[in-house]
Amino acid sequence: MTGLPLPGELGEHARRVLAGRVRPVPARDAATVVILRAGPADGMQVYLLRRSATMAFAAGAYVFPGGSVDPRDADQAVAWAGPSPAEWGKDLGADEAVARGLVCAAVRETFEESGVLLAGPDTGSVVADTTGDDWEADRLALIDRSLAFADFLARRGLVLRSDLLKVWAHWITPEVETRRFDTRFFVAALPEGQRTRDVGGEADHVVWHRPAEALELARSGSIFLMPPTYRTLDELAGHDGVGAVLAARREIVTTMPTVVEVDGELRLVIP
């Protein structure tokens, strides 16, 4: 049987969980967004950031922008355009409040970690540029939670564009992990006129890669991808471009890796 080995303290913690000596850590709601753009020649590219080596979770891994839901993300004061939270709830398999929080977190975290903002003055437009000093001040205030996302949008006269997102996948961290997330993966096209930038913080490097290129770098050991990121890139590599991804029909199936013991070694198995 194949799978990823669980060495050291992680393996010991997994044994304690499997033996019932330790209760699994609750999984926190989280959202991740795959930002897509047309490639310089053909096909498409995805935005990846490398998590700093000092991070407690997924240090050194190349990931998509995203993070945990903030309690204020479910605030009904968040200006909204596009499918309603109730409609999103059907796609996400969640109640309206959780769906609102997940979509809001997806948009907020994307702005915090890439500078891309899926919002506009009205239901048919998107802000064209978010690279000025005033935008950077707001981004930092959102990160340190001194500014609520609802207040940020209201002050700038913007509405969250939920129609620019498409749900792609649903992953839950294995029960044996010490940090767990219940994460919805979304995809979105880079809005015209906007550009990503190296925003620092939790990341120390950012890149644009074709999905197949990122997978090849991972197979060669040049970069490290966590299983959900690898699986998502593998799925995206089967599509011809951004339009094909956004038009793809998806059946969202919840995926949670499990742990099995093989010849005395614990291994993480991904369905």
Automatic annotation (TrEMBL):
<dbReference type="InterPro" id="IPR000086">
    <property type="entry name" value="NUDIX_hydrolase_dom"/>
</dbReference>
<protein>
    <submittedName>
        <fullName>8-oxo-dGTP pyrophosphatase MutT (NUDIX family)</fullName>
    </submittedName>
</protein>
<keyword id="KW-0378">Hydrolase</keyword>
<keyword id="KW-0464">Manganese</keyword>
<keyword id="KW-0460">Magnesium</keyword>
<dbReference type="GO" id="GO:0046872">
    <property type="term" value="F:metal ion binding"/>
</dbReference>
<dbReference type="InterPro" id="IPR015797">
    <property type="entry name" value="NUDIX_hydrolase-like_dom_sf"/>
</dbReference>
<dbReference type="GO" id="GO:0016818">
    <property type="term" value="F:hydrolase activity, acting on acid anhydrides, in phosphorus-containing anhydrides"/>
</dbReference>
<feature type="domain" description="Nudix hydrolase">
    <location>
        <begin position="26"/>
        <end position="231"/>
    </location>
</feature>
<keyword id="KW-0479">Metal-binding</keyword>
<dbReference type="InterPro" id="IPR039121">
    <property type="entry name" value="NUDT19"/>
</dbReference>
